[in-house]
């Protein structure tokens, strides 16, 4: 029995310091997980239950060398294209209803990532009470750097920062997350059965804004590394 169309390549992310690859199964993203960002988006930052959206696995754009920024295409159907710098969590195991105290045992490693957003599309859908999919889950919307093994990072603290054309636009600490990495994994596992290969984009600090063709984005998370890309 043969496949009726050609099989696609499984999206994969390099593991830092090795020749290994992390295969990507699903991409989950946490919305408004920093209080200051919630306020800038016009929402109450109180600690209400987290909510999630998804991106397709092949939205991944590999940004493996900060010295050589990767080209990220400006997407179709938008005039308000935004950056969101985030810590990405890569899972080596999963399950359902994972306890908070067991959640970090599921983590393979961490990476720098960008949740690129067609903000005008997102807001148009939101205002009509419709899903955000086309504002968040489009082609090339998930740039990511190499994955650093979990043993080398404490995900409860560390500077997270993004510069656009050399100017700092976002700067916070992982300790500012409303829902910690462990809490996020636990809560999400009560909604979906998590599995090895899943990525979780954990939320962005305040300071999100638009970019245009030619803009250079340089992000850094303390202990994780750097990510760089140019909008093309």
Q: What's this entry about, in short?
A:
The chain is of the alpha+beta class and 232 residues long. 13% of the residues lie in helices and 33% in strands. 40% of the residues are buried.
Break the fold down into its secondary structure elements and pairings:
Layout: E1 12-14, E2 21-23, E3 27-30, H1 35-40, E4 52-55, E5 60-62, E6 70-72, E7 81-83, E8 85-91, H2 100-103, E9 107-114, E10 117-118, H3 119-127, H4 133-136, E11 142-144, E12 148-149, E13 159-164, E14 167-173, H5 181-188, E15 199-201, E16 209-210, E17 216-221, E18 225-231
Parallel strand pairs: 3-15, 5-11, 6-18
Antiparallel strand pairs: 1-2, 3-4, 7-10, 7-16, 8-9, 8-15, 9-12, 13-14, 13-17, 17-18
Overall mean pLDDT stands at: 95
- Count of alpha and pi helical runs: 5
**Order of H and E elements:** EEEHEEEEEHEEHHEEEEHEEEE
Structural class of the secondary structure composition?
Answer: alpha+beta
Helix content: 10-25%
Radius of gyration: 17 Å
What does the largest sheet look like? 6 strands, mixed
Euclidean distance between termini CA atoms: 42 Å
Which ranges are low-confidence, i.e. pLDDT below 50, for 5 or more consecutive residues?
A: none
The overall strand count is: 18
Global shape? globular
Determine the strand fraction and express it as a percent band: 25-35%
Sheet with most strands: strand arrangement: 4-3-15-8-9-12
Describe the structure.
By secondary structure, the chain is an alpha+beta fold. The chain is 13% helix and 33% strand. It contains five helices and 18 strands. The protein has helices spanning 35-40, 100-103, 119-127, 133-136, 181-188, and strands spanning 12-14, 21-23, 27-30, 52-55, 60-62, 70-72, 81-83, 85-91, 107-114, 117-118, 142-144, 148-149, 159-164, 167-173, 199-201, 209-210, 216-221, 225-231. The strands form five sheets. A six-stranded mixed beta sheet has the order 4-3-15-8-9-12, covered by helices on one side. Strands 6-18-17-13-14 form a five-stranded mixed beta sheet, with no helix packed on it. Strands 10-7-16 form a three-stranded antiparallel beta sheet. It is globular, with a radius of gyration of 17 Å. 40% of the residues are buried. The mean pLDDT is 95.
């Amino acid at each position: 029995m043969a496949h009726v169309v050609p099989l696609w390549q499984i999206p994969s992310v390099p593991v830092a310091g090795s020749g290994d690859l992390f295969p990507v199964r699903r991409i989950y993203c946490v919305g408004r997980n920093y209080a200051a960002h919630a306020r800038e988006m016009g929402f109450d930052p109180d600690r209400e239950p987290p909510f999630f959206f998804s991106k397709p696995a092949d939205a991944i754009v590999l940004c493996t060398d900060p010295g050589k920024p990767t080209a990220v295409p400006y997407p179709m159907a938008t005039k308000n294209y935004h950056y969101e710098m985030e810590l990405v969590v890569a899972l080596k195991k999963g399950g359902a209803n994972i306890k908070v105290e067991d959640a970090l045992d599921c983590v393979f490693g961490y990476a720098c990532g960008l949740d690129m957003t067609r903000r005008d599309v997102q807001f148009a859908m939101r205002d009509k009470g419709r899903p955000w999919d086309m504002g968040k889950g489009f082609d090339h919307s998930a740039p990511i750097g190499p994955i650093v093994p979990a043993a080398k990072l404490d995900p409860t603290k560390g500077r997270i920062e993004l510069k656009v054309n050399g100017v700092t636009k976002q700067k916070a600490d992982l300790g500012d997350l409303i829902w910690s990495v462990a809490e996020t994994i636990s809560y999400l596992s009560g909604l979906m059965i998590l599995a090895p290969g899943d990525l979780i984009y954990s939320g962005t600090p305040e300071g999100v804004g638009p970019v245009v063709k030619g803009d250079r984005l340089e992000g850094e998370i303390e202990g994780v590394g750097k990510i760089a890309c140019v909008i093309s």
